[in-house]
Design goal:
Length: 351
Amino acid sequence: MNKKWQQIILVAFTYMGTIVGAGFASGQEILQFFTLYGRYAALTIVLATFLFIWIGVKVMLLAKSAGASNYEDLNKVLFGPIIGRWISWFMMLILLGTSAVMLAGAGSLFEEQLHFSYQTGLILTLVLAYFVLTNGIQAIMKVNSFVVPLMITFTIIVVWHTWHIPNHTGWLRITSDFPYAQIWFSPIVYAAFNLAGAQAVLVPLSSAIKDKSVLYWGGILGGIGIGLLLLSAHYALSAQMPGIQQYEIPMGHIIQRLGRGIQLMYTLVIFGEIFTTYIAGLYGLTQQLQPYTRLHPHILLALLLGFSYMVSQLGFSMLLSTLYPLFGCISIIWFIMMVYKRNSVHTLHHP
């Protein structure tokens, strides 16, 4: 494989790893945004996949054309210098909160699935995050190049298992009483929410990759990969409907049937998916805050890790229910601007 294709795959894996977090890995996001809508879900996943390809590529190419090095630079291109700065600072607060959600999710995973203490999960995650993030965007790409293939492998195992159960065609037959407007708005909200957060790493990634064609094809491949993962999880969840709705971690219930060894390995994969989203958010935050501080990057990173640790003490469920609806509102505004923004932009002049 030549070097260009290696870079394309690394970009695709980094994009996928940034999108796939605790909600995706557990199956809860997929259940709420797609599977509950029955046989229409496959079509709404196709729409979401199109949005992940289109807007994901657009974010990276816009950032590259503008010379953006962090998501604040991109937001200034989208909203203008004044509003763009305010939007970015608001998103910074949300990213701080969602990073704490990911950290809390890791703690809960260690406590519930591996039977370690909540604090042990937090501290181990913090140490690993510091080690990876002090090595920059290349280290983030390497982590994703390890975690994402594992995630794909387990997805194939789940699909293969589902293929052999009686209700495996459930994804084609489940009916839904939800209004059409809600069904078709759901994938738009889902894509907007995830893409707004993903810009924290997609913008620095575009700065690190010199070749625009690598970003273009990496975005397309990553978007298709996200869509296939969504469709695979939906296929598995649909086969277990409606009983699967009672579980906090639906995918964990499906995996549990494959034996304790597989369940343990999948728990580690879920941790890897939480971890990749956690480090993506923190990396974007350090890139944005660095121009405003005189702190050494490692000290700034340590402070951000410490802040996320303190906030994570509030617990996973409480943080999730409070912060995610707030982020959803600003994400829709950002998403609309991305849809209507032309690809031709003026290069940013950094002070």
